Amino acid sequence: MIRVLLVALTVAGCAQTPAPISVGADLLTCPDAPPPPAAPPRIRTAAQLAQFAVDLEVAREKTRDALVECDRRRDALVRMIER
Questions:
Q1: Is residue 40 a contact partner of residue 52, using CB atoms and an 8 Å limit?
Q2: What is the average per-residue pLDDT within 9-38?
Q3: Is residue 8 domain-resident?
Q4: Under 8 Å CB-to-CB from 63, ≥6 apart: which residues?
Q5: What is the rounded distance in angstroms from the CA atom of residue 31 to the CA atom of residue 63?
């Protein structure tokens, strides 16, 4: 009985281990959010304020896009882990 157990353990030790899952470097990082736009000068015109508002909205859109991409990468990692 012990011999059978020793043979089974020896054979089990020879079994190949599954290959480790390689994760792409692009899945491990998230894109950086853009820096906020520079504040308009202390004495400002309506055109400067309007341009600041446009720059701020563009930065917000880029940040939202970066967050969506980060969520996509996180979901890909979760799917990889669940396999």
A1: yes
A2: 73
A3: no
A4: 33, 34
A5: 9
